[in-house]
Write a structure and sequence with these properties.
The complex is a heterodimer of chains A (about 230) and B (about 500). Chain A is α/β, with parallel strands linked by helices and about 230 residues long. Chain A is built from 8 helices and 10 strands. Chain B has about 500 residues and is mainly alpha-helical. In chain B, about 70% of the residues lie in helices and about 0% in strands. Classes of the chains: A alpha/beta (about 230), B mainly alpha (about 500).
Chain lengths: ~230, ~500
């Protein structure tokens, strides 16, 4: 589904990302872990063509992302709050995203009804603009918006941060479901090793821009990761 | 403790983002500030001589005293919009071992040296110096100045008290208009009494105690009020407005650009700065009155063409010059979402077109000044539609500066760079030159026809032009995303 080839990103003389080859098959739930500055967000930004690669390229479902925009209809993402439009209410935002992805209001409402639990009554019908919601609730709205329109690839940067425990557990269920039942390729980055090992079939560890581990998740994975990060 | 507060204040001033702005903008702002101060100082030092000449035989001091009442009321009125107590700044101090009473004194104290207070001094100090040179008794004059400083502070602290309700603002407005009316129609000589009142401050220095005690009293009221409200859920809470939603279903008839059109309309209506610009654009329809009511130009002067371009194109230039920076807060989302850049730009063009047509319709009453006025405005509207819309969209591709929509509208230069000044050239100057040359050497009708034809040609080729513009945006995409992320630019 997603193939990365000789990808590097340099700022000045500093190499922030250097991935020789990375292949993510369709329907995989893929986890990216690493310390601050490891290159997680850089990789996601390259994948979304928000920054330009210094060398190499990423091919998403046979579309080279920095050459064509054809990846946009089947790829959706939530990187941070800058993906939200502050002066819209959550509903308006969902409908707006829906329109961009050819979903009418009824489609969007049907999807949202599956997330009533997840929203915990704090998102819909609040008569508040997104900019006035708490960080955690903004995140919930952004994450759910990325599920609108049956995307084949979903990219979530640090989805667990800022969420309350109940929502974290629910989100884990949702992500597992997406990959296992609907064949969606889910890319998740996180600082939380426990969450990532629970959710992802495969975990890649980035360190200073390079892939240092590529693990099929098993019962041993968490310990392996912990010993790696303990240094 | 006080020393710490002063150093904090110092840093917040010199490290504020307005100091980090682009060189051109900074120079412009410094220039404007100097211009304003120089005019105030000039007025202050000239005031004595002007009054002496206009009202011979009357003590200029008395004349100034007469208008002090209006100055106070008008300044209160404007401060209502401009000055808010900066309570949010003290949030980080709350959990530090600082007494709440010192925090309160800090907020209130620092407001006394605010820009607004110092501004009036630039007028009064030169005036007082002139008085001293003219041989007025030094003690009386200096104490009078002291009283004025107290009055400035009274305005300052009174503003924080009345700032909490709109009703007071309306009352103030009515009071100003009412007093002026009473005066104007000879019912009650407001200035005479005001003159006596404030002239007494000069005649009898002991009376300076009155404004002084008023300041102390008002400070105390403010202190009492604020001291009990320095909590996160009281005065330090950000006010949130209830969201009013509307689905703007009628925009559906515009087809694929409808979602963007809705978004833009919500953008304009729900953010202070854009809303302000919308109102300014509307008000600009009266701009022409200034020139049309003067008979000095002749009915086909180039100035009218400039006015026409301006009136029908105010929204075009005000809103258009910051495309796509209006969307800068979420620009990376727009670029990662399933959005064809082309429809995005088409919707902006559509919105601006509607505004041009609307402004033209509003300008029809100018036909009162002769059919030429209508013809000029019509040609200008066509030119704006066909030529200026693609031009401003193209220049938009050079925008790389972020605009925070939540920031206030007053004097907000965020997002401004050299582009904003450069774009005025093709937008307003080029059509004026074309018109001037053709009108002078051929005829008025030909000049207007040419502008109209240019507009129609631009309109006919809009598809192709938009393709080119889309390409330009595509090329600048990464620079825009990076630029819009920089918060302090």
């Amino acid at each position: 589904m997603i193939t990365t080839q000789n990808l590097t990103k340099k700022y000045g003389s500093q190499i922030v990302l250097n991935i020789e080859h990375l292949e993510i098959p369709k329907g995989q739930s893929f986890g990216l872990v690493g310390n601050n500055g490891a290159g997680k967000t850089t990789f996601f930004s390259l994948l979304l063509d928000l920054i330009q690669p210094t060398t190499g390229h990423i091919v998403n479902n046979e579309v080279q992302v920095d050459k064509s925009e054809a990846w946009k209809p089947f790829t959706s993402s939530f990187i941070d709050e800058t993906f939200l439009i502050g002066y819209l209410t959550p509903e308006e935002y969902f409908y707006f995203i829906g329109e961009l992805r050819n979903q009418n209001k009824a489609d969007v409402n049907a999807l949202l009804s599956n997330f009533q639990d997840f929203f915990h009554g704090e998102i819909l019908g609040q008569k508040k603009y997104l900019r006035d919601l708490s960080k955690g609730n903004q995140k919930k709205a952004g994450i759910v918006a990325s599920f609108i329109g049956n995307p084949e690839v979903v990219i979530l940067d640090e989805p667990f941060a800022n969420l309350d425990p109940t929502t974290q557990i629910r989100l884990k269920g949702i992500i597992k479901d997406l990959a296992a039942k609907q064949g969606v390729t889910v890319l998740v980055s996180s600082h939380d090793l426990i969450h990532v090992t629970e959710v992802c079939e495969r975990i890649v560890v980035l360190n200073k821009g390079e892939i240092v581990r590529d693990i099929e998740t098993s019962t041993e994975t968490l310990r392996e990761l912990e010993s790696f990060f303990a240094g | 403790m006080f020393k710490h507060f002063v150093s904090l204040q110092w840093k917040s001033f010199f490290r504020s983002s307005s100091f980090g702005k682009g060189l051109a903008v900074r120079i412009l702002m410094i220039f404007l500030a100097i211009y304003m101060l120089v005019s105030l100082v000039g007025l202050g030092s000239g005031l004595y001589f002007i009054l002496e000449e206009v009202f011979p035989g009357v003590d200029p001091m008395l004349k100034v005293s007469e208008y002090v009442i209006y100055w106070i009321l008008i300044e209160l009125f404007f401060r209502y919009f401009m000055q808010k107590l900066p309570v949010m700044d003290v949030k980080p101090l709350l959990m530090l071992p600082v007494k709440k009473s010192s925090i309160t004194h800090y907020i209130l104290g620092r407001s006394s040296v605010s820009f607004y207070n110092i501004l009036s001094l630039f007028l009064f100090v030169p005036f007082v110096i002139v008085l001293l040179i003219k041989g007025y008794p030094a003690l009386n004059v200096l104490v009078w100045l002291f009283s004025l400083i107290c009055i400035i502070l009274v305005i300052n602290y009174l503003n924080f008290i009345i700032n909490k309700s709109d009703k007071v603002l309306i009352a103030l407005g009515i009071l100003i208009v009412g007093l002026y009316g009473l005066e104007r129609f000879g019912i009650f000589p407001v200035t005479e009494y005001s003159g006596k009142l404030f002239y007494a401050l000069y005649q009898n220095p002991a009376l300076a105690l009155v404004p002084l005690l008023t300041v102390i009293g008002l400070y105390y009221v403010n202190y009492k009020f604020l001291r009990n409200r320095i909590f996160l859920d009281a005065s330090l809470k950000k006010k949130t407005k209830e969201a009013i939603t509307s689905d703007l279903a009628w925009t559906k008839r515009f087809g694929s650009i409808a979602p963007f059109l809705q978004l833009d309309m919500k953008l304009i209506w729900r953010n202070k700065r854009t809303k302000m610009q919308f109102f300014i654009s509307m008000a600009m329809i009266f701009y022409g009155l200034i020139f049309y009511s003067l008979d000095t130009y002749g009915s086909t002067s180039t100035i009218y063409l400039f006015v026409g371009i301006f009136m029908t194109g105010m929204f075009l230039s005000n809103f258009g010059q910051f495309i796509p920076a209006w969307d800068s807060e979420y620009y990376s989302m727009m670029m990662a979402q399933n959005i064809p850049l082309r429809s995005y730009l088409e919707s902006k063009a559509g919105l601006i077109s509607v505004s041009v047509v609307f402004m033209f319709l509003l300008s029809i009453p100018y036909v009162y000044f002769g059919w030429q006025a209508l013809a000029i405005n019509f040609a200008c509207a066509i030119y704006n539609l066909g030529v200026n819309i693609p031009v401003i969209l193209y220049f938009g591709s050079f925008n790389k500066k972020r605009i925070d929509l939540t920031k206030s509208a007053m004097g907000n230069m965020q997002g401004t760079s050299a582009t904003q000044f450069l774009v005025l050239l093709p937008l307003m100057v080029v059509p004026s030159i074309i018109y001037f040359v053709l009108k002078t050497f051929v005829s008025f009708e030909v000049a207007l026809l040419t502008l109209g034809t240019l507009g129609v040609i631009g309109f006919a080729f809009r598809k192709q032009l938009l393709d080119k513009i889309t390409d330009a945006y595509r090329k600048k995409k990464y620079a825009m995303i990076a630029g819009f992320k920089e918060k302090n630019s």
